[in-house]
Amino acid sequence: MLGWLIKRLVSLVAWAALLLAPMRLQAATLTTTQTLQAVISPLGGLFSFPNSVTLTKSGTTFSNYTGSLSVQYRTRTTQSTGSGSITVKATADFTPTGGPSIATPPSTGDALQYTCSGATLGTSCSSTQTVSTSAATNVVTLSASECTGGGGSCSSTSPNTVTLNFTLTDDPQYKTGSYSATLTFTISAT
Amino acid sequence: MKKVLALTAFALLFAASSALAQLGATTGTTTMSVAVVAEAGLTVNTSTTTLTESGASFSPYTGTTSLTYYIRTTPSTGGGNIQLEVTTDFAPTGGPSVGSPPTGTDALKYTCTVSSPGTACTGSQTSSKTAQTPVGTFGAGANSAFAGNSASVAWSLTNDPLYKVATYTATVTFTISAT
């Protein structure tokens, strides 16, 4: 009996050796190559966008209403030839009627205007801009080879920011009440 | 090997989409709001109103003060007014006086003109050193023009022979209010 068992064990060991040996002996190195291609495109995005801005006033009677808004953005424009911009447009005029209006103000001198300051990438709009319901107006102008973050040839800050300071004429013709409008900001980059 | 290549490609695509999400949106909207409330403002166009005697001896001294007012009152429930008060009596003493005239019938009086949407005071008013007196009133939903609307006060000061010869000045304060 013992002899039989030993014979069986030897056979098993032999079979195991036969099975394992070919794997060690047949191991080989296979290499192949893969080409990876990354297409880096110009891009622009608006971040942490405040969903409301309130205009208020203080002090002098019938002085302008004022308020400010900071916009965060990231962008990348094409080397040497690219450009881009951030613009703003009133996509909905003040409602209800009877108060301020961007498109049809009660008095000729009424306007919703803004100045831009502190753009950390690109150039802020250079003068007082008048908000329009029919056309977008400039906030930031981007040049070629602009990029957000990382320092060096890119901006040192990320995201970038720009501040808009709004003024709205306080026309005695406005009826008392609460009014709201919608402003849409758009960023583009090439 | 094909599985390895597929996994690698999928990883690259996933990384690219994650990068796009981190760059934000190309547009953003914000709601701009403003609360318009009742307001009133006044400009006195005539900084010094000189009262002069016209023609007949001891006829009253007269002169006109021009005003521009700006007003917005609340529709349905609002209102407003313009008033005046002699906050500093004529000085030096010895001449006309609003508070202590040398003759009981001496008075600094005025009539009012206020353009729409205001309503002028009625008839001749007697100015006072101790209380405001009316110039004009405004109803609910009154709105002046962007450039303002006109008003004026036409003065008449008794020419009492008891006044000593000199130049006398007083201060009149106008007040406008709106609700």
Describe the structure.
The complex is a heterodimer of chains A (190) and B (179). Chain A is mainly β and 190 residues long. Chain A has one domain. Helix content of chain A is 13%, strand content 37%. In chain A, the strands form 2 sheets. In chain A, strands 1-3-9-5-7 form a 5-stranded antiparallel sheet, with no helix packed on it. Chain A has a 4-stranded antiparallel sheet with strand order 6-8-4-10, with no helix packed on it. The radius of gyration of chain A is 34 Å and the shape is elongated. The N and C termini of chain A lie far apart (87 Å). With 179 residues, chain B is mainly β. Chain B has one domain (39-178): Immunoglobulin-like (Sandwich), CATH 2.60.40. Chain B has 1 helix and 11 strands; from the N terminus they run αβββββββββββ. In chain B, the strands form 2 sheets. In chain B, strands 2, 3, 4, 6, 8 and 10 form a 6-stranded antiparallel sheet that branches. In chain B, strands 7-9-5-11 form a 4-stranded antiparallel sheet, with no helix packed on it. The longest helix of chain B has 20 residues, at 2-21. Chain B is elongated. The N and C termini of chain B lie far apart (82 Å). Residues 2-22 of chain B have low confidence and may be disordered. At the A-B interface, strand 1, strand 2, strand 3 and strand 10 of A face helix 1, strand 1, strand 2 and strand 4 of B. Strand 10 (177-189) of chain A pairs antiparallel with strand 1 of chain B, so a sheet runs across the interface.
Draw up the topology in text.
The complex is a heterodimer of chains A (190) and B (179).
Chain A: H1 2-26, E1 43-47, E2 52-55, E3 65-76, E4 84-95, E5 112-117, E6 123-124, E7 129-130, E8 137-142, E9 160-168, E10 177-189
Antiparallel strand pairs in A: 1-3, 3-9, 4-8, 4-10, 5-7, 5-9, 6-8
Chain B: H1 2-21, E1 27-36, E2 39-44, E3 52-53, E4 61-72, E5 80-91, E6 108-114, E7 119-120, E8 125-126, E9 133-138, E10 149-157, E11 169-178
Antiparallel strand pairs in B: 2-4, 3-4, 4-10, 5-9, 5-11, 6-8, 6-10, 7-9
